[in-house]
């Protein structure tokens, strides 16, 4: 089992000291920051840490980009187009920077962890002040301090990444939040850039995770999502704690009412996890289990290390053990060499598995990954057509699955409300991730409510408030 290396306390303290110095200098100047974050929950959570550090440095949150004295783009590189968009958005800031030389512009996130992309961006946009990779997040106060002194800073460190504990965090939302349990990934699925930018798999110490869970529970968060690229391979060298055991300990924390987790890799999903889901009352009956393809040939080329049969067997086991469970998935179409027959295998798997939602993507070659160098790349038009057909099949399945809910009752955690067809409508999820819309206003947000399902609407359910 690999050892987790934590960033030395002195190194973190040195950064927090810089933050405190900046706070003393900047306080009262009313400087504001705005973070534009792209990509997954991992990136969103990094943005929450950046917010924590920015506020420790004396900055206040801005309500819009225009109002900000410091703009940060937290980028993602998992799928294509992101790069074009980020470069476009940053390019468009030149005029504003000319007019407002005091504006500080920073770019960070996974895309900047790719050295050549970071260097290209730094060269192309001389008005960008600060570029740093994901492994430099905990050095942010020092990097910012240099930028404030007028230096142009670029800092991208090749590293498997240590874990920085104890960074200040400002969380978005007030009743549901994320706690990272592990970083990085060792799986090297051949299409995926994550292992290259997020480094090798490393798990946080269970006592640090549980302390954070207790802290957020005390702050009033009722729902916690445990985050990692592959939570099923959670393992910490100094303690005999695997992921199901971590769930058991999280379940024992007072104040937490719902526990979610993502993402699970099918190859590592153990009977112990299924048992934990079935027996721990706070662990929600939902699992996000990316299948990626229904063809054994393509699964092998993707280096997923399970077969279609193994996946469908897991689905059966989960459904057999966990009451009212819903399963969601990720699917890629147009992986190199994918034939019509392979694609039909994916369609038939979607019909057999009965997903509650499928997040579907056209394969996009990521530089440096094995699949990007494979022959038989699929034409864009073929990918597009397959995506449309897949989405149609997946919608048909999930609508079929929705009908069983009519007449059922359940508890939702109310997330928000909006105006729909002239009526104020509240919405929230059942434990199994199904979204329910029902008549109700803003006063319900953050509360647990009983609803009865009366109808369905696309991916979601419609209900009435019982209490
Ligand atoms: N092309 C298309 N989709 C991808 N994903 C990851 N890498 C790629 C890629 N190169 C999808 C996978 C993964 C989700 C987060 O993004 O389906 O599960
Ligand atoms: Fe990427 Fe595969 Fe790791 Fe998921 S498990 S992050 S798809 S390499």
What average pLDDT do the residues reach?
94
Number of strands: 19
Number of H- or I-type helical stretches? 15
Cα radius of gyration in angstroms: 23 Å
> What is the chains' assembly state?
single chain
Beta-strand portion reads: 15-25%
* Helix residue percentage: 25-40%
Derived structural class: alpha/beta
What does the largest sheet look like?
6 strands, parallel
What would CATH call the architecture of the largest domain? 3-Layer(aba) Sandwich
Query: How many separate structural domains?
Result: 4
CATH class categorisation of the largest domain: Alpha Beta
Distance between the termini: 49 Å
Q: What general outline do the C-alpha atoms trace?
A: globular
Uncertain runs are: none
* CATH level-3 fold name of the largest domain: Rossmann fold
Which ligands appear in the coordinates? 5'-deoxyadenosine, iron/sulfur cluster
- CATH homologous superfamily identity of the largest domain: Methylthiotransferase, N-terminal domain
């Amino acid at each position: 089992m690999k050892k987790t290396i934590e960033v030395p306390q002195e190194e973190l303290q040195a950064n927090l000291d810089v933050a405190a110095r900046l706070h003393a200098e900047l306080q009262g100047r009313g400087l504001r920051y705005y973070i534009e974050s792209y990509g997954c929950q991992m990136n969103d959570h990094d943005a929450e840490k950046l917010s924590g550090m920015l506020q420790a440095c004396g900055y206040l949150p801005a309500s819009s980009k225009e109002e900000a004295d410091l703009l940060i783009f937290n980028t993602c590189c998992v799928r294509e187009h992101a790069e074009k968009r980020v470069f476009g958005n940053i390019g468009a800031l030149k005029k504003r920077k000319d007019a407002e030389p005091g504006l500080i512009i920073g770019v960070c996130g996974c895309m900047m962890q790719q050295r050549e992309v970071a260097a290209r961006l730094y060269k192309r946009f001389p008005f960008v002040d600060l570029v740093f990779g994901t492994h430099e997040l905990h050095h942010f106060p020092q990097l910012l301090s240099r930028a404030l002194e007028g230096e142009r800073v670029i800092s991208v460190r090749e590293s498997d990444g240590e874990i920085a504990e104890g960074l200040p965090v400002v969380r978005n939302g007030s009743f549901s939040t994320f706690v990272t349990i592990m970083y990085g990934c060792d799986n090297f699925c051949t299409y995926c850039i994550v292992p290259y930018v997020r480094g090798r798999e490393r798990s946080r110490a269970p006592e640090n995770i549980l302390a954070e869970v207790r802290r957020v529970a005390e702050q009033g968060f009722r729902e916690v999502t445990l985050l990692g690229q592959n939570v099923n391979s959670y393992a910490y060298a100094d303690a005999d704690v695997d992921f199901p055991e971590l769930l058991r300990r999280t379940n024992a924390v007072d104040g937490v009412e719902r526990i979610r987790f993502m993402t699970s890799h099918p190859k590592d999903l153990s009977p112990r996890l299924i048992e934990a889901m079935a027996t721990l009352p706070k662990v929600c009956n939902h699992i996000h289990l990316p299948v990626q393809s229904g063809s054994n040939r393509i699964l092998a080329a993707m280096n997923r290390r399970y077969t279609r049969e193994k996946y469908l067997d897991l689905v059966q086991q989960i459904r057999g053990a966990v009451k009212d469970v819903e399963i969601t998935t990720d699917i890629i179409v147009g992986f190199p060499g994918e034939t019509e027959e392979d694609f039909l295998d994916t369609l038939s798997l979607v019909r057999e598995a009965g997903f509650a939602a499928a997040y579907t993507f056209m394969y996009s070659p990521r530089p440096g990954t094995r699949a990007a160098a494979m022959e038989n790349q699929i034409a864009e038009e073929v990918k597009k057509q397959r995506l449309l057909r897949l989405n149609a099949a997946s919608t048909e399945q999930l609508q079929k699955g929705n009908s069983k809910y009519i007449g059922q009752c359940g508890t939702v955690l109310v997330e928000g409300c909006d105006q729909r067809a002239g009526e104020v409508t509240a919405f929230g999820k059942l434990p199994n991730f199904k979204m329910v819309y029902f008549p109700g206003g803003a006063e319900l947000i953050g509360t647990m409510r009983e609803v009865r399902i009366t109808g369905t609407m696309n991916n979601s359910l419609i209900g009435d408030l019982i209490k």
